[in-house]
Specification:
Radius of gyration of chain C: 20 Å
Shape of chain B: globular
Structural class of chain C: mainly alpha
Number of domains of chain B: 2
Mean pLDDT of chain B: 82
Largest interface: B-C, 34 and 34 residues
CATH architecture of chain C: Orthogonal Bundle
Helix content of chain C: over 70%
Chains: A alpha/beta, B alpha/beta, C mainly alpha
Oligomer: heterotrimer
CATH class of the largest domain in chain B: Alpha Beta
Number of helices of chain B: 14
Strand content of chain C: under 5%
Chain lengths: 262, 311, 333
């Protein structure tokens, strides 16, 4: 399923959060959404999911306006992992993952075999099958992110939106989560991921959209977006670049304004 | 309403209970000898003077003062005396100033004798005495005999001994006429009051019931003080004569909810219902014998029916 | 800890409630145990026993069942929706607000003429309280919710006392005890019929929330993405809890902690699943209140032990435990 966002405007209390933003995610594509804090990345994801009111523009799925979908159909089309990783009750991990099946289940039906199978597969996809019986509130950060990611995968939506999936994780688990996202995309799902890590963005993303003050500053292949000029203008940093085994990489190196307020 | 109203009202309504001249009987009994002594002493101290500005601050003493003293010597009665639900003289006292029993208004009345019941208003009474007022505290009537002694006692204090004697003679004559000397058979009488309170074995109400040749729930089930009787207990007791307390339905309170319960209707259907005004036995006054007369008539009717039914 | 199979748990709770209901019919001042039924079967005092059972013990048992189930269900739903195990109708002031509404209806005399005004005003009271609390709970977290609850309870308690002392009926001012601690002594079937439609409406509304409460476990953002209509859910919980608590309080006064203890005890048995918690909390609440009411009758001395006293004695230790355990959550809010 193709996601198209066109001249999207979001205004809240007279402040323009998103200003004519356009982007698209095709099936099988892993798209990175980057930008400094407050650029509007989370607002954009929330606008697509439907938890943020849109002022203007359109969000379409396979060419159909998202407002034409009923809430359940929309929930089946778009899986979302929000930034907030709270788990309120100590449910077993298997039940948490099963929540992903909510949009597929009629209200009174008991859990069906197919849902169980999907949930088990989702847990296996994030290498968390052994956690199945654990209480969700006693997981480590890495485990928790993977379990919640499995919950999002269990929706089996053609589109997956994830907000800062690697925040707070050690490098091992960061790479692990990025690999899961890449595998998910390459199995046919369109994935839109908000990231802060430029190195991982450069390394894993098929395409990158750079947001700045609610506008799109650049978009395209990672190497075309993460240029020293773009990073200087948007992030006010200089970077180191190099090539490791024919793959380009980028490292944030120093602040350009030396911390003086602008 | 039986004499232990304040037990039912609880401490929260101390003002009401006190102003009505009724207070916890438990205290009443334990303190009785001491209080009688105090009352006698205060009686001696006021006996020589003839009070001209009498103030009563208790609904029970209100009724005795009104019966004994000429109207022009009564400076004020308690406001509850004007409430027909609790006072038998409500219609007779128009024109007499009413008070709420606060020291300030009593002082302003410049009384030469203050009359009140023995229990409650301790701090007001102590304050008035400290300032120098003469306060007569009458003990609460626990029996019909206490009524006579209270009347005589107050009559002496008000310099109305002859009038007191007349009242007491009439009271005793009527009592002799109405009392059942030794009842072989005592039908059960239940005075069912707000919140389900009913009579034990002691107190003015029980004394009247006994003299009428009837039994109280306390006699039947073996409790001394007033107690709450659940609707289930009431139905099970199968009373032969029932009197319902004032329903207090305007304005309503939960206490009166029992009055609308189907069980209460079933109990009344199976019993002889009498209507005795609460004022009759709330205080020991000559009016109290009206209750005795009603109960005696009800008993005679029941016994008569039984005898007619089984000759 | 392995959660018991859901069906087994439901069946066990239904059985427990049924047994306690039967015990409740068998216990009373005139005959504890089976005497009433034996006498009734043998035809002794048939008329009296059937009056006692139909007009006194049955309404009482039915009220314990209905009120307990409503409080348990309302507690579990509020806790699921607000994602806070301390959200109990009594603690956060919903019951006091309902009591205030009921007090106004009764002591003004309106409820004498139009009985239906009693549950309606009580529900209006609880509805107001829930509506005030919800935005605070959403923004502030556990501590804010409890503090706002204390404020609402105090205000409603003061206004209730004021309304009672303004009444010229001398009994009114003492009945504050009833409104604070609850009782279902000497009620009639009329009380049952009076609240049943409102309670049924509340149960229906809360039953409709069940699947959605589970989705809220991962926070409102995730719930929305799963297709939960949060505005509709809030409406269901608010009105449903208000109907349950308002109608229950209208005839039984404030009975605290049922909605706290019951969900707390049953949560591990349903694997902490907020949706499965609803039916078992309703049954558990009914069982708890039936048991508490039987205790009240067995303990009963001269002056009745109030139902709310029994539930508070059971409930307060749980409340303390939950407060201590959620201390960290306060820091986070």
């Amino acid at each position: 399923m193709q996601l198209d966002v066109d001249s999207l405007v979001v205004r809240a209390q007279e402040r323009v959060l998103l200003d004519h933003v356009a982007l698209s995610v095709a099936p099988g594509e892993l798209v990175g959404l980057i930008g400094p804090n407050g650029a509007g990345k989370t607002t954009l994801l929330r606008a697509i999911v439907g938890s943020q009111r849109i002022t203007g523009g359109s969000v379409r799925l396979d060419g159909r306006a998202i407002d034409d979908f009923d809430t359940r159909a929309r929930a089946r089309a778009l899986a979302y992992l929000p930034q907030d990783r709270q788990i309120e009750w100590p449910l077993p991990v298997s039940e948490i993952v099963m929540l992903g099946r909510y949009p597929h289940r009629s209200r009174l039906a008991p859990p069906d075999a197919r849902s169980d199978e999907v949930a088990t597969r989702a847990l296996a996809a994030v290498d968390a099958a052994p956690l199945s019986a654990r209480r969700a509130t006693v997981l480590s950060g890495g485990e928790r992110t993977r379990v919640l990611l499995a919950r999002a995968l269990a929706v089996e939506a053609p589109l997956l939106l994830v907000d800062e999936p690697v925040a707070g994780l050690d490098p091992y688990h960061q790479l692990h989560v990025m690999e899961i996202l890449r595998d998910t995309a390459h199995s046919g799902t369109g994935v839109l991921a908000v990231l802060h890590d430029l190195t991982l963005t450069m390394r894993f993303m098929d395409r990158v959209v750079l947001l700045h003050d609610g506008r799109i500053a650049a978009h395209g292949a990672p190497a075309d977006v993460l240029t020293p000029a773009n990073l200087r203008d948007v992030y006010r940093i200089s970077t180191l670049e190099g090539i490791n085994k024919s793959t380009r990489y980028v490292l944030p190196w120093s602040r350009l304004d030396n911390g003086t307020p602008t | 309403m039986p004499p232990s109203t304040s037990e039912r009202f609880g401490d929260g309504a101390a003002m009401d209970g006190i102003a009505r001249g009724v207070d916890g009987r438990v205290r009443g009994r334990t303190l009785a000898p001491l209080c009688a002594l105090v009352a006698t002493l205060s009686y001696i101290s006021v006996a020589d003077a003839r009070p001209e500005r009498i103030v009563s601050i208790n609904v029970c003493t209100d009724q005795l003062v009104a019966a004994l003293a000429p109207r022009e010597r009564i400076a004020s009665l308690s406001y509850i005396a004007a409430d027909p639900r609790t006072s038998a003289i409500a219609t007779e006292i128009e024109g007499i100033a009413l008070n709420r029993g606060t020291a300030e208004e009593i002082i302003a009345l410049e009384p030469d004798l203050i009359v009140t019941g023995q229990f409650g208003m301790r701090s007001t009474v102590a304050l008035l005495r400290r300032i120098g007022f003469t306060v007569l505290e009458l003990p609460m009537a626990e029996t019909v005999a206490d009524i006579a002694s209270n009347v005589l006692h107050l009559g002496a204090a008000l310099d109305q001994r002859d009038k007191a004697r007349v009242i007491v003679d009439a009271l005793e004559a009527r009592l002799r006429k109405l009392s059942v000397a030794d009842a072989a058979e005592r039908p059960l009488f239940v005075n069912y009051d707000a919140n389900g309170w009913t009579t034990g074995q002691t107190g003015l109400l029980a004394d009247i019931v006994h003299r009428a040749g009837l039994a109280t729930p306390g006699d039947r089930f073996g409790f001394t003080e007033s107690m709450r009787l659940s609707l289930e207990g009431l139905l099970h007791a199968e009373p032969e004569i029932v009197d319902l307390g004032y329903p207090w339905e305007d304005p309503p309170a939960l206490a009166s909810r029992l009055w609308r319960h189907p069980i209460l209707r079933a109990v009344i259907d199976r019993a002889h219902l009498v209507d005795i005004p609460d004022s009759a036995w709330l205080c020991g006054t000559p009016h109290t014998l009206d209750a005795l007369a009603t109960l005696r008539a009800a008993r005679d009717e029941i016994i008569g029916q039984q005898q007619a039914g089984s000759p | 800890m392995n959660p018991i199979r859901f069906g087994t748990l439901l069946a066990a709770l239904v059985g427990l409630t049924a047994v306690l209901f039967a015990v409740s019919l068998a216990v009373g001042p005139t005959g504890t145990g089976l005497r009433a039924f034996v006498d009734l079967a043998a035809g002794r005092d048939r008329e009296m026993w059937s009056l006692i059972i139909w007009e006194l013990r049955l309404p009482r048992a039915l009220l314990a069942l209905i009120v307990g189930a409503s409080l348990g269900l309302a507690g579990a739903s509020l806790q699921g929706f607000l994602r806070n195990p301390l959200a109990e109708p009594g603690i956060i002031g919903i019951s006091s607000a309902a009591a205030l509404g009921a007090v106004i209806a009764i002591y003004s005399g309106i409820a004498m003429r139009f009985p239906v005004v009693l549950p309606l005003l009580a529900i209006a009271g609880s509805l107001t309280a829930v509506s005030v609390l919800q935005p605070l709970a959403a923004r502030g977290g556990a501590l804010t919710l409890i503090l706002a609850g204390v404020a609402i309870s105090s205000l409603c308690g003061a206004l209730t006392a004021l309304a009672l002392s303004l009444s010229s009926n001398p009994f009114a001012s003492l009945e504050i005890v009833y409104w604070m601690l609850g009782s279902i002594t000497d009620r009639s079937l009329a009380d049952v019929w009076l609240i049943l439609p409102f309670v049924a409406l509340g149960w229906g509304l809360l039953a409709a929330t069940s699947g959605q409460l589970a989705a809220l476990t991962l926070g409102p953002e995730t719930a929305i993405s799963l297709g939960v209509d949060l505005a509709r859910l809030q409406w269901l919980v608010t009105l449903g809890a208000a109907c349950c608590v308002g109608a229950a309080t209208a005839v039984a006064g404030v009975i605290g902690f049922v909605g706290l203890v019951v969900p707390h005890l049953l949560r591990p048995l349903v694997g902490f699943h907020p949706s499965r918690l609803l039916p078992v909390s309703a049954l558990g609440g009914a069982a708890l209140l039936l048991a508490a009411d039987v205790c009240v009758r067995l303990l009963s001395t001269e002056s009745e032990v109030r139902l709310g006293v029994v539930t508070a004695l059971i409930g307060v230790p749980f409340f303390f435990y939950l407060v201590v355990r959620s201390r960290s959550a306060y820091g986070a809010s």
